[in-house]
Every structure is written in structure tokens, then in C-alpha cells.
Amino acid sequence: MTKGLSRNHPRHSQRGVSIFADVIELDDQGQPVNAKHTGRRTAARLYRLTAGR
């Protein structure tokens, strides 16, 4: 059993959206300026949650 949350935990999607929303930056027209960075950071954080690191 892993130390982190279960891989199928329903809150992972909620956490992903929360992390994404916290990191994303938008320009004056509402277009994302750091979408790649935001996606990578969200994926890395979710990985650490599921891997227990």
C-alpha cells in the first residue's frame, strides 16, 4: 500500500483543477500565457500525491 492517497481517489481531479487554477496566468484578453508550465506543474503535483512522495 502506498503512503499517498489511493490512485483512484475522487479528490484528485478536484486537486488538479485547484492546482491548475492557482498556477495559470492569463493575459489581458483572457488567454493563458503559461499553459505548458501549468500543466506540467499540475501533473507533477498529482504524481507526488499518488506516489506518496
Task: Summarize, please.
By secondary structure, the chain is mainly alpha-helical. Helices cover 57% and strands 0% of the residues.
Descriptors:
single chain; 53 residues; mainly alpha
> Helix count?
2
Count of individual domains: 1
Strand percent estimate: under 5%
Helix/strand order: HH
Structure, described:
The mean pLDDT is about 80. By secondary structure, this protein is mostly helical. The chain has one domain. It is elongated, with a radius of gyration of 13 Å. It contains 2 helices and no strands. About 55% of the residues lie in helices and about 0% in strands. The two termini are about 15 Å apart.
Helices and strands, with pairings:
Blueprint: H1 11-23, H2 35-51
Helix pairs in contact: 1-2
